[in-house]
Amino acid sequence: MGKAVSDSSDLAWRCGVCGYIHRGPTPPESCPVCGAARSDFEAYHPPAAPPAPAAEGWRCTNCGYVHKAAGPPEECPVCGAVKGDFVPATAAATGEPVRAVGTVVVLGAGIAGLSAVEALRQASPKTRIVLLAREGHLPYYRLNLTRYLAGQFSRKELPLHPKTWYDENRVELLTGVEAVALSPQDRSVQTSDGRTIVYDKLILTAGAHPFVPPLPGASLAGVHSLRTVDDADAILAALRPDVRAVVIGGGILGIETAAALARRGAAVALLESHAWLMPRQLNRRAGELLAQYVVGAGVQLITEARTRELAGDGCVSGVLLDDGRTVPADLVVLATGVRSNSHLARKAGLEVNQGVVVDNRLGTSAADILAAGDVCEHHGVQYGNWAAAQFQGAIAGMNAAGLAVEFGGIPRSNTLKVLGVDLVSTGLFEPADGSYLLADREAEGTYFRFVLHDGLLVGAVMLGDAAPAGRIKKAIESRRDFSAVIPGGPTVQAVLDHLPE
Ligand SMILES: Cc1cc2nc3c(=O)[nH]c(=O)nc-3n(C[C@H](O)[C@H](O)[C@H](O)COP(=O)(O)OP(=O)(O)OC[C@H]3O[C@@H](n4cnc5c(N)ncnc54)[C@H](O)[C@@H]3O)c2cc1C
Has residue 328 been placed in a domain? Predict the structure, then answer.
């Protein structure tokens, strides 16, 4: 466990697993968000942030009553709620009309939305919860769609909870219903089926959509992306014996999709415009070694393949590259990145950068609107991964219930499914300048790279063996001092030997 930040009473501890911030003299016994043990907590060093508004009293989270005194009352004089239901009221909050946390609308039923619902229901048994789900399905494991495509995961294994769970937990799940406009002024959401739902708190968890590059032919029949179970079904429906599939984009999604289609018996070409796979997460050597697994899975890999156009007459027939080559295709899957579903927030006047901008409490620039998951941007970071969406969702749900919980960020890491190769890439994978040190090792089908700076471990790549991943994450998070392994040049073994237990 790390040392406390300071001697003052304002000590904070961050959960190394989910990023939850606990304020108090010591870390909690276990994390209320992800259940991690006390030993997973480390001292939290907050990023420079604007100072929080001064507390001007105590607000009852049940009815909104503000008690102007140094401490909370024993009992709320308005609704009888107990002392523990009071939270510090800020100057901004006390200037607002007092509102009860009666209805919370959760906009988007992915993992962020569902985690928000779960945390909210646990913290606030009486709150009315409305969960808007544009897709006409029960919320499901989106990250398992490539396994579903590969035939490794069945349709009935996809839902996160059965229908009965929503009834038992009094969650009004509206499947097939899209939010079409937000009105922060009168705290309402308009939906595609003509309802206007008034909220006390709104949690935006609308996720992201595939980025479709502006290529000629991108709208031809046979051109797909993979974000939803309907997308997966459309791709599966297009699989015939001898189908020639081309996947554009050699990131995680592209690699997994290509491997999944190859498992289904398609002849698959994977196109990557860079010289190696996963160029945003891997150094060249790691990308080249990964390519051996991809080729071993029966995928034809074409690097430095810049797509100029998708050719075809009504239906796609090939991918035309900048260098003049054409790769024949009956089916094309674009795996060229995602973009935040931020348009409703932008139209409603919320601060949006690449995603909807949130603070540590997952609050947006609009009163009573929080955001979590792929839709949001926290300290300039859009995680775009399952774990962050899950943890942010839970923290937003707790805050919507009137608690005061913060998200302090988590290391970004990636792992590969479907191919059956362990791959972890976290933090930096290349030196930013000459002051960074590298340790590389390639042996017996495994590859390790560690990046060190100022005596600290700042990044790691592991291919073929991800066993030390947890301890590496902990070493990065806790800012473990690796100065002892640096004299004479750090080696992979010395770094491994110096990892925390
Ligand atoms: C095929 C695939 C494989 C993946 N594999 C991994 C992996 O291995 N590991 C990993 O960490 N991450 C993986 N990811 C990424 C991960 O799934 C996402 O980061 C995560 O699902 C984001 O969750 P979210 O709840 O923020 O958004 P989403 O899952 O996108 O959910 C948002 C939901 O909101 C709905 N919505 C949007 N707008 C509206 C509206 N106006 N009204 C109502 N509903 C709306 C959407 O339809 C959607 O259902 C994968 C993603 C895909 C597509």
Answer: yes
Q: Does one domain contain both 233 and 305?
A: yes
> Does the beta carbon of 133 sit less than 6 angstroms from any atom of ligand 1?
yes
Select from 68, 95, 122 the last residue of a domain.
95
3-state secondary structure of 393: helix
Q: Are residues 227 and 332 in the same domain?
A: yes
Task: Report CA torsion sign: 166, 149, 355, 453.
Answer: positive
Q: Which residue has the tokens 């100057």?
A: 91
Q: From the alpha carbon of 209, which atom of ligand 1 is closest?
A: 30
Q: Which of 18, 209, 255, 386 to probe ligand 1 with, by most ligand atoms within 8 A of CB?
A: 386
* Residue 370: strand, helix, or coil: strand
DSSP per position, 141-193: -GGGHHHHHHTSS-GGG-BSS-HHHHHHTTEEEEET--EEEEETTTTEEEETT
Which tokens sit at 168? 């038992």
The response to whether residue 389 sits with its C-beta less than 6 Å from ligand 1 reads yes
| C-alpha dihedral (301, 336, 107, 174), degrees to nearest 10 | -50
Q: Which domain, by its residues, includes 169?
A: 103-209+339-407
Is the same domain home to 137 and 113?
A: yes
State the pTM of this model.
Answer: 0.83
227 Cβ below 6 A of ligand 1: yes
Whether residues 123 and 198 fall in one domain: yes
Residues 244 and 265 in one domain: yes
Write the pLDDT tens digit of every residue in 231-277. 999 999 999 889 999 999 999 999 999 999 999 999 999 999 999 99
Q: Ligand 1 centroid vs 330 CA: distance in angstroms?
A: 27
Which protein residue has the closest C-alpha to ligand 1 atom 17? 143
- Per the domain annotation, does 412 fall within a domain? no
The reply to whether 130 and 194 lie within a common domain is: yes
**Which residues of the chain are under the pLDDT cut of 70?**
1-10, 17, 46-68, 76-81, 84-101
Looking up residue 174, the CATH number of its domain turns out to be 3.50.50.60
Q: By alpha-carbon position, which residue is closest to atom 29 of ligand 1? A: 110
> 293-348: per-residue pLDDT in tens?
999 999 999 999 999 999 999 999 999 999 999 999 999 999 999 999 999 999 99
Residue 163 located in a structural domain: yes
